[in-house]
């Protein structure tokens, strides 16, 4: 059997890798975000002496410890599957990013050690809270560093550095590494926050004790602050990331924005609209239960809800009448342009407007939060709003992952796309001797910088 030609019956090896990676990312992103949120909550509990923060931090840390083994097992399984199903590609990737993979392994090991130590010494360091909180932030730091190493690899696969692979700094800091890392850093907090809010809402609806209802009402509020507060940063960061893709891998950009997969961005706009409207509606509802009545703030928040709906409509209007190719089309399909669906200026107005209104709503809500709320009085429909956000953010994460990875499946590319953009195809064939650079030898021959092999002859 030729190396790298192992096939998986029925579903295919691409589906196997996709399923393992997507599942691992859902675990890993939550763990990274949750550790830092828990450490921050513990710090706030230490400063404010409010027991809710301590209870929340400890419960979340316990859940992270239980979840860690599953996330680690998925990561190991994914690496084994990648080595087995795509050995040629993995060997190239490992040669390019040997030091990055080595650092990532040690960061992952450090995260495991510190996370378990942080939880296990919770009571022993009860009177040395500053030291214990530091453990939590160090665990979060190790997780962020491990994520940064993987982001360098993922960004390189879509936008290879315009330099020889021996240039470690250029391959690591390729054209989209920084915006992708910022995008995922912010996304981890938002993702974990929305899931925490959803879990708080679920427990609130099932609780019968008054103290539990107070706590879970507060938990939903606290989680949504993280979820929506970081979500409103994503449009500007996402724009920077897309700009980097457009400048470095234009064919990939056209595929996901103008080609067969442009409909995916309509889905992302719909998900963003659902979370934004649900979160803003929750904030409006919660202002009714502020300890210090603030009718003016609430009326302003209601107005902001209207603007949120307006800007989300601009985001979800498709560019043409071919909404979902082959599934939903009307009035001439792709030949019929919809004026309000253009990227410029309407989508920019929608995204920027949504971000500005989001900041405004969060600022109003934080002002009310400073005075406090009457906890345990939330209505059921407000909790349903939080419950809607939780599965929506999971689907959003999966859709965004699919969008980024499928960008390398350039439209009309004969071999179906690339594993490394414009360099290594899905069939693990090296198609460009300049990937990413070719060194000219003194004798006139060329040396491929990936594996050092001579790929050309002199005149």
From TrEMBL:
Family the UniProt entry places it in: Belongs to the cytochrome ubiquinol oxidase subunit 1 family.
Listed transmembrane segments: 15-39, 60-90, 96-119, 131-150, 185-202, 223-242, 262-284, 296-317, 348-369, 381-402
Protein name: Cytochrome BD quinol oxidase subunit I
Signal peptide extent: none
Lineage: Bacteria, Bacillati, Actinomycetota, Rubrobacteria, Rubrobacterales
Entry membrane topology: Multi-pass membrane protein
Gene Ontology biological process terms from the UniProt entry: aerobic electron transport chain
A Pfam cross-reference name: Cyt_bd_oxida_I
Keywords: Cell membrane, Electron transport, Heme, Iron, Membrane, Metal-binding, Transmembrane, Transmembrane helix, Transport
UniProt xrefs under InterPro entries: Cyt-d_ubiquinol_oxidase_su_1 (IPR002585)
Location of this chain's protein in the cell: Cell membrane
Organism annotation: Rubrobacter marinus
GO CC annotation terms, alphabetical: cytochrome complex; plasma membrane
Single GO MF annotation: electron transfer activity
């Amino acid at each position: 059997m030729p190396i790298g030609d192992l096939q998986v019956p029925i579903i295919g090896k691409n589906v196997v890798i996709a399923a393992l990676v997507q599942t691992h990312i859902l675990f890993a992103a939550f763990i990274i975000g949750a550790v830092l949120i828990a450490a921050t909550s513990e710090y706030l509990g230490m400063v404010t002496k409010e027991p809710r923060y301590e209870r929340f931090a400890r419960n979340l840390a316990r859940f992270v410890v239980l979840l860690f083994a599953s996330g680690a097992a998925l990561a190991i399984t994914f690496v084994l599957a990648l080595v087995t199903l795509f050995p040629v590609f993995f060997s190239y990737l490992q040669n390019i990013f040997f030091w990055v993979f080595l650092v990532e392994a040690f960061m992952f090991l450090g995260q495991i050690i510190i996370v378990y130590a942080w939880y296990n010494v919770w009571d022993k360091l009860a009177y040395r809270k500053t030291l214990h909180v530091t453990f939590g932030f160090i665990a979060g730091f190790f997780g962020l560093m491990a994520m940064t190493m993987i982001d360098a690899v993922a960004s390189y696969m879509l936008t290879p550095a315009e330099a020889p692979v021996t240039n470690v700094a250029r391959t690591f800091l390729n054209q989209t590494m920084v915006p992708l890392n910022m995008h995922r850093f912010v996304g981890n907090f938002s993702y974990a926050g929305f899931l925490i809010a959803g879990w708080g809402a679920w427990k609130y609806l099932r609780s019968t004790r008054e103290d539990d209802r107070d706590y879970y009402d507060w938990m939903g509020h606290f989680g949504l602050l993280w979820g929506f507060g970081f979500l409103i940063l994503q449009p500007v960061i996402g724009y920077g990331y897309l700009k980097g893709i457009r400048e470095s891998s234009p064919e990939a950009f056209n595929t996901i924005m103008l080609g067969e997969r442009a409909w995916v961005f309509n889905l992302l706009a719909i998900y963003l609209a659902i979370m934004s409207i649900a979160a803003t509606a929750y904030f409006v509802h919660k202002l009714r239960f502020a300890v210090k009545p603030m009718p003016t703030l609430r009326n302003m928040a209601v107005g902001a809800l209207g603007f949120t709906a307006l800007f989300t409509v601009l985001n979800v209007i498709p560019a043409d009448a071919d909404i979902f190719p082959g599934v939903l089309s009307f009035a001439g399909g792709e030949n019929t342009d919809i004026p309000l669906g253009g990227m410029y200026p309407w989508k920019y107005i929608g995204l920027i407007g949504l971000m500005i209104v989001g900041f405004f709503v969060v600022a109003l809500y934080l002002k009310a939060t400073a005075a406090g709320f009457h906890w345990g009085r939330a209505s059921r429909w407000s909790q349903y709003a939080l419950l809607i956000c939780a599965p929506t953010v999971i689907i959003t994460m999966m859709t965004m992952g699919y969008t980024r990875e499928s960008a390398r499946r350039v439209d009309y590319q004969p071999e179906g796309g690339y594993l490394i953009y414009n360099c290594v195809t899905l069939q693990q064939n090296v198609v460009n001797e300049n990937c990413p650079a070719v060194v000219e030898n003194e004798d006139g021959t060329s040396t491929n910088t990936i594996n050092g092999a001579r790929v050309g002859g002199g005149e």
